[in-house]
Amino acid sequence: MAELKKGPFRITNTLSRTKEEFKPLNPPHVGLYVCGPTVYSDVHLGNVRTFTTFDLLYRWLTHLGYKVRYVRNITDVGHLVGDVDEGEDKIAKRARLEQLEPMEIVQKYTNGFHDVMRLFNILSPSIEPTATGHLIEQIGMVARIIEAGYGYEVNGSVYFDVPKFAGKHAYGELSGRRIDELVANTRDTEGMDEKRSPLDFAIWKKADPVHLMKWPSPWGEGFPGWHLECSAMSTKYLGRTFDIHGGGMDLKFPHHECEIAQSIAADGQAPVRYWMHGNMLTVNGRKMAKSEGNGFTPEELITGNHKLLERGYSPMTVRFFMLQCHYASTLDFSNTALQAAEKGLERLMAAMDVLDKLKPSAAPDAAQDAAVNALAQRAYDAMNDDLNSPVMIAELFEGVRLINSANDGKVALGATAIDALKRLFNAMVFDVLGLRREAAVAADDTALDGLVQVFIQMRTEAKARKDFAASDRIRDQLLALGIVLKDTKEGTTWARA
Fold first, then answer.
1. Where does 279-356 show beta strands of DSSP type E?
2. Whole-angstrom Cα distance, residue 350 to residue 93?
């Protein structure tokens, strides 16, 4: 399709903070890149929200008829993660703690990440590149940055010259930072004596002799900087300028700001036309964090195994709850809010059951055809307005009211209106919002086995870290749902009670 036929897709352009019509570079194709997980620990809820947001975008663009190339990377290099070039390689640290090889850690937590994505019905991307699989591209980009005069080598490490870049290009525009303010707020860190400026960041870091994950380069053995991998992989698969890039709000600075600088320095052009960032999570009004004691995991949210949770909540309840909040707004978790989402989801699915059985009225009200079309148009307009899923869901509940009124004989719907409602609800609920009927999963042993295997894996991991209380709770809560686990020498099996 050469044009959007269901209204212009408008997306927040973070650089200008205005809304403009979304026109992909190569219609009907869209290039979408999202920063993926660093695989050294279990998935946290912030990951789930971020990838649910971009799953929604992927689904919506696909629904509109675009061919989307969706790239989501895996950070498996084991480099330093953060806004400073110091600290310990987190993958190597985890490998020592668990007495495994670094790539065993990578595989373990990559598998765990995929399990969680399936649990929340988050679609797989078109391409899922790994940082270790693209070292040639990263080394090539470092060389181009040096050749352009924005990178310099010191003792086997290569740094990006931020002040020199900022002298000719806008640095900090995405995040609203000013170069003088950044200088004033810097602090002394490891490796500062090698840098020309405290703002400079490593694009290639010399590896210590004990560093486990390192590779040969023109500058000696080392590993790429954190910001480099996304620049190299996004432009490899989507072109030197592509449509949409995003991630969590915490990546806006320095990660995405550095990506922009690297790509302009290496290739002479800004890499991204539209930036999207998901907002943070809070719990009962307080920032979600381990230090606050309120940083529960997806496993804890589903099992209810956390002091702040009254009980567990199903994956689709959690997904629906997240989509009821705009991606750019703060999402606050509370038992009250989760239970309200649970009831809302039940009401939505119940209305769809009613709709499937609804018979056209013998004397339909012609005005209802127009009302249903207007409702559908408002739902599409909401999604086209910066993915406003809360407003779209509100329109669906207006449709729920209409369906229930027709079922009670208060409104006369004809076949045309009923068919239009069926198309709208099936498209929006299943295809776009990515919800699914959880009761249907429980009725099918093949699907149920996959779900139970996720919990068995969670329980195995809990036992491995000697969290036997969590292991027992998973077993007991599955038993309460009619699932019996049996531990054997070959592993854990399950059966219906």
1. 281-283, 286-287, 331-333
2. 49
Instruction: Give which of 2, 1, 7, 3 is closest to 386, Cα–Cα.
Output: 7
Q: Centre a 10 Å sphere on the Cβ of residue 108 and count the other Cβ atoms it contains.
A: 18
Residues 349-395 pLDDT 10s: 999 999 999 999 999 999 999 999 999 999 999 999 999 999 999 99
pLDDT for 73:
97
CATH of 282-436 among 1.10.10.60, 1.10.730.10, 3.40.50.300, 3.40.30.10: 1.10.730.10
Residue whose C-alpha is closest to residue 113's, from 41, 170, 59: 41
Residue 491: which of 470, 454, 460 has the closest Cα? 460
What per-residue confidence (pLDDT) applies to 480?
A: 77
Which CATH superfamily includes the segment(s) 10-278? HUPs (3.40.50.620)
- What would the pLDDT profile of 399-412 be if each residue is shown by its tens digit? 999 999 999 999 99
Question: Highest-confidence range of 399-408, 452-461, 484-493, by mean pLDDT?
Answer: 399-408
Spell out the residues 6+ positions from residue 166 whose beta carbon is closer than 8 angstroms to its own: 172, 179
Asked if 473 contacts 305 with a C-beta cutoff of 8 angstroms, the reply is: yes
Break the chain into its structural domains and give their ranges.
Answer: 10-278, 282-436, 442-496
Instruction: Report the alpha-carbon angle 466-467-469, nearest 5.
Output: 135
Give the list of residues 6+ apart from residue 22 with CB closer than 8 angstroms, or none.
8, 9, 10, 11, 274
Alpha carbons 457 and 399: distance in angstroms, whole number: 40
Which of 57, 89, 58, 96 has the alpha carbon at shortest distance from 75? 89
Count Cβ atoms below 10 Å from residue 234 Cβ, excluding itself.
25
Radius of gyration of the chain (CA): 25
* Sign of the CA dihedral running 170, 175, 176, 179: negative
| Number of other CB atoms surrounding residue 317 within 10 Å | 22
Q: How many CA atoms lie within 13 Å of 164's alpha carbon, on the beta-carbon side? A: 18
